[in-house]
Design a protein that fits this description.
113 residues, alpha+beta, 3 helices, 19% helix, NA-bd_OB-fold, S1_domain, S1 motif domain-containing protein
Length: 113
């Protein structure tokens, strides 16, 4: 785990919607919590189950290399991601954004808080 000062410094250079190529490194409970992704930073990436397809058979498997966008980052010292590839994104993403994060389109390109 990175120190708080490093986490704060790193976040200053990150933007909502910023795209990283990542490798799925762990799918601990398919269909239950989400997937862990290595995006080449000193902190891990994570895609929440809510942003993945409903059927876990449609999730990217360990070893999959694909693009991910920064969705969120907070004090957990982990970068929350969303899949860029629509095959790995929840079917109702537009509805999801409308209901839970309507400010998303205007946040793209802005620095993380």
């Amino acid at each position: 785990m990175v120190a708080e000062a490093e986490w704060t410094r790193m976040r200053r250079g990150l933007r909502f919607g910023q795209v990283f190529e990542g490798t799925v490194v762990r799918v601990p409970r398919p269909g239950a919590i989400g997937i862990f992704v290595d995006i080449g930073l000193s902190v891990g990436g994570f895609v929440d189950v809510a942003l993945l397809p409903e059927r876990s058979d449609d999730w990217p498997v360990e070893g999959t290399v694909t693009a991910f966008e920064i969705w969120w980052a907070d004090s957990r010292r982990q970068i929350r991601l969303k899949p860029s590839d629509p095959r790995y994104l929840c079917d109702d993403f537009t509805d999801f954004v409308d209901r839970f994060r309507p400010q998303w389109p205007s946040q793209i390109g802005r620095p993380l808080p």
